[in-house]
Design goal:
Its EC number is 3.5.4.4. This protein is α/β, with parallel strands linked by helices. It is built from 16 helices and eight strands. The two termini are 17 Å apart. Bound molecules: zinc ion.
């Protein structure tokens, strides 16, 4: 069995529609009344949006029910689904901890509460019966003030047992006026040993070359090979990896067809830039990681060799995977031990 790694998955978008709808029926009277039928809810939840901003609005629906009290409920189901249906051996979860705190508290109290949110997510991700190596990435957010984003970076540094990296999210068109601020925060994070990724070059309005030198991985980054391929040698030199999340670009209206990704993969392979294929919001899209792989193969965007290279890259660029190789190499070892006289089919 092949085991996979997903490097880009949002906690908010990771709840599959069936789990969320059932949660409403059990615990949220108002939302249960708004969506009495599952089919109607699934249609609303997973339909394509016309822009990234409209798509991100949907996250607030999930964020409103993911609180300190309910997070273990959702994370247990997330880990169970990832283990059973997606064969994940490794998963990095990302979220903005501030948006999981109690909105009735003051800003400083909410900052204080972020610590327990990180702990709850970390503990809930360790499920004995569904073992997956997990990591956390804390997202700064373009809608949050500097003090909160700085507190998010500080928290990531302090909680190194749970958190490996920081990210910037909230729609890449909104960073323009605060670029210096975000560069400063990334510098601050790198100086303190944190790893970095960032939602960038996802849309045509989110292309900021100034931020690139501070990122170890690039969240999406598809506009680089599409519009600015001249930047690719720099990315290869810095050993940066693109986190490409195919279904997202259809749901946000960024691409019309996944076949447009062929240029992204071809140019990156040619330039020696790694790509990890990820889900972004597997629940919101109702598309799990193996189906992202299969869709790309079916549409001839990539072949099996390229898929394997991307799967290898995912483990290589994982922030919290403690081994040099992907888990399949361990199974290959076991396979030759079972009957060493038989050759392995090459
Ligand atoms: Zn994302």
């Amino acid at each position: 069995m092949a085991l996979y790694a997903d490097l880009h998955r949002h906690l908010g978008g990771s709840v599959v529609p069936r789990v969320l709808w059932r949660y409403f029926q059990r615990h949220e009277e108002n939302l249960a009344e708004r969506f009495p039928e599952y089919a109607e809810f699934e249609e609303f939840y997973t339909r394509e949006r016309t822009s990234l901003d409209e798509y991100l609005e949907l996250h607030t629906l999930v964020e409103s029910v993911q609180t300190a009290k309910t997070l273990p409920y959702f994370i247990y189901r997330l880990i169970r689904g990832a283990y059973i249906f997606e064969n994940l051996a490794y998963l990095e979860l990302r979220y903005t901890p501030y948006y999981r705190t109690d909105e009735h508290l003051s800003q400083s109290e909410r900052i204080e509460q972020m610590r327990s949110i990180v702990e709850i997510v970390g503990l809930a991700s360790r499920v004995t019966e569904y073992p997956i190596v997990t990591g956390q990435i804390l997202c700064m957010h373009s809608r949050l003030p500097y003090e909160v984003n700085k507190a998010i970076v500080d928290l990531a540094v302090e909680m190194g047992d749970y958190v490996q990296a920081i990210d910037i999210a909230g729609g890449d068109s909104h960073y323009a006026t605060r670029l210096d601020e975000f560069i400063g925060l990334y510098r601050y994070a790198l100086d303190r040993g944190l790893k970095t990724t960032g939602h960038l070059y996802e849309t045509r309005d989110g292309c900021y070359p100034e931020l690139l030198p501070y990122l170890q991985r690039i969240g999406h980054g598809i506009q680089i090979p599409l519009l600015y391929p001249e930047l690719l040698p720099e990315l290869a030199e810095r050993k940066q990896c693109l986190e490409v999340c195919p279904t997202t670009y259809l749901k946000t209206g960024t691409l019309e067809s996944l076949t447009q990704l062929k240029t992204v993969f071809d140019r990156c392979f040619e330039a020696g830039v790694d790509i990890a294929i990820c889900t972004d919001n597997a629940g919101l899209h109702n598309v799990r990681l193996p189906f992202e792989y299969e869709n790309l193969l079916t549409l001839d965007v990539i072949g099996f060799d390229q898929l394997q290279a991307c799967q290898d890259a995912a483990f290589r660029h994982a922030f919290a995977w403690p081994y040099g190789q992907r888990p399949a190499s361990l199974l290959t070892g076991l396979l030759s031990v079972t009957n060493p006289k038989l050759p392995l089919y090459q």
